[in-house]
Write a structure and sequence with these properties.
With about 280 residues, the chain is an alpha/beta fold. The chain is built from 12 helices and 9 strands. Strands 1-4-5-6-9 form a 5-stranded mixed sheet, with helices on both faces.
Length: about 280
């Protein structure tokens, strides 16, 4: 499944949420229309047509601007075909998932001689992630939203996914990881989601609960130590007895720092180098 088609799938599973997002107003009664248009039928793989109250919404998802025929001409073509069929006002929105190369002109209209046809463009990399993070239907798009620290945003996305009900979590997690792979290295995506799931696991919760029940600094430190050792062995493999002892001797603050640093480790040598610095 292509990235564009995955977005089409999401928008057709949750049409009201996508319509509300791109239009900026709450939409309740939304019907998904077929994507095959009459007159030399074309099938729009990455296109969603929605019927709202008194109007139509045409959503087009794109990872790349280049196409044949050009995107602007396709938007005019879709508009004419839709209007011929339904005779309703039509709002057209192109959702760009990734920024194009520098100096690329992002067109918002088809213009030839006296013909001018306009449509909206949503640049996902400029969108505030807050709305996407707080809506499970839109959450898979959140890793591609605006962020001064993209990896921090991805970690927030993982946290939000893991707060979903179990029946939703697996599906949304899969979609989110696929789309996050457009922007982030796939190994990082898998690692963060794996660690996020582990943090929600019974074992991790038991470790924290033991620390809370003891009500002592030692309990909290033991929980953090156990977690960091587990994460390290998932990240770089089996630790030597010497490295385990050195990690176990770290203070609580150092363990918390190591928990963040190990996300960038690729081998046990990275751990040794980090310990030497401490």
């Amino acid at each position: 499944m292509s990235f564009d088609n995955l977005c089409k799938l999401l928008s057709e599973k949750h049409p009201a949420r996508f319509a509300s997002w791109v239009l900026g107003t709450s939409q309740v009664s939304v019907k998904v229309l077929k994507t095959e248009l009459s007159i030399e039928p074309i099938r729009a793989d990455s296109v969603t047509f929605l019927q709202l109250q008194g109007q139509l919404l045409h959503l087009e998802f794109q990872t790349k601007l280049e196409s044949n025929p050009p995107l602007s001409l396709r938007m005019l073509d879709y508009w004419v075909r839709l209007y011929r069929l339904y005779r309703l006002p039509i709002t057209q929105v192109v959702v760009l998932l990734l920024p194009p190369p520098d100096q690329t002109v992002i067109e918002t209209a088809f213009v030839v001689a006296t013909t001018r046809h306009e449509y909206r463009v949503v640049r996902l990399w400029e969108e505030d992630p807050a709305l996407l993070l707080n809506d499970p239907a839109l959450l898979p798009l959140a890793p591609l939203a605006a962020a001064s620290e993209p990896q921090v945003l991805l970690q927030r996305v993982v946290q939000q996914v893991n707060q979903l009900e179990p029946t939703q979590r697996r599906e949304i997690s899969t979609y989110t990881q696929i789309l996050a792979g457009l922007k982030f290295e796939k190994g990082l995506v898998r690692q963060l989601f794996r660690e996020g799931m582990m943090r929600e696991s019974v074992i991790y919760q038991e470790i924290l609960e033991e620390g809370r029940q003891e009500g002592r600094q030692e309990g909290r430190q033991e929980g953090e130590r156990s977690l960091v050792l587990l994460l390290l062995e998932q990240r770089v493999g089996q630790l030597s007895p010497e490295d385990r002892d050195r990690v176990s001797a770290l203070s609580l603050e150092q363990l918390e720092a190591l928990a963040l640093a190990l996300l960038d480790f690729s081998s046990a040598l990275d751990l040794v180098a980090w310990l030497e610095q401490k």
